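Journal club side-thread
Mid-discussion, someone asked how the predicted structure for our own chain would compare to the paper's figures. Pasting it here so we can look after the session.
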Amino acid sequence: MIQVYKHSNGHLDGNISLAAAEKGSWINVVNPDSDDLQLVSMVTEIPTDVLKTALDTEERSHVEIEDNYVFVVINIPIILETDSYDTLPLGIFITSDFIVTLCIQETEVMRAFTKNTYPLFHTFKKTRFLFQILYRSATLFLRYLMQINHRTDDLEETLRHSMRNKEFFMLLELQKSLTYFTSALRGNGIVMERLMRLRRNTALHHLIKMYEEDEDLLEDVIIENKQAIEMVEMYSNILMSMSDTFASIISNNLNIVMKFLASITIMLAVPTIIFSLWGINVQVPFQDSANGFFFVSGIALICTITAAILLWRKDLF
């Protein structure tokens, strides 16, 4: 899918065809096929092979500088259908006329721009638009980290009284999500530092030109990204400690149940032995008594109560 947007007189026009794209337009490409990539390549003069690079799900965050474009890849956060979290590469190309974004699927990061809900967003301010995408990605990382923290608290309450593996596997899934976030945020941080250094490169001013407001925005993005990295590290340590702790708790809860069942087994074994002794085919006490059954039952009851008291004193019941 190819969408072309352009701001004109403060209004975002999203009904522009690729062939009619003008200078200052934003070309948003989502899950394209080979024909779509060829069309984008013809309009933007970006090689098709380079465009395909942005669609590689294993692509790492980096910056490539060519004569006619700057290629930036960042990893953005997404929520999977299983309510777990992952990251996905987002390719951003800046040419002298256009800004092009490519991703394998529609994401929450870009939805704020396609719906024109992001403040002070203009397609023709390409450098600022790039930094706004970076800022949007960093704030989403922080939001998802807060969601992970809340889910961790809920799982903690459940695991306090649970012996099931389901919640424990959910905890491990959150740990894996934080690992993805750590790798993505560190890579994005390197990209931001590289972009900050480009402001001194006058040879790239026809592609990336930073004004004072743009530099301030990029500094804010770097701060947000560092804050997200610190939060990821903190939550990762918490989850690792929780995993070890609750693994021990689950094992301890199981031991308590097994101890209780063993105590019940011992208590049931006492009357079983007594009734077995009186059931043998030899002379036994009370066999000629009309109340023999009640005598034997009383003896069994007394022995069972005695066993229960002994187990209780030994903290085994």
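Post-session note: The chain has seven helices and seven strands.
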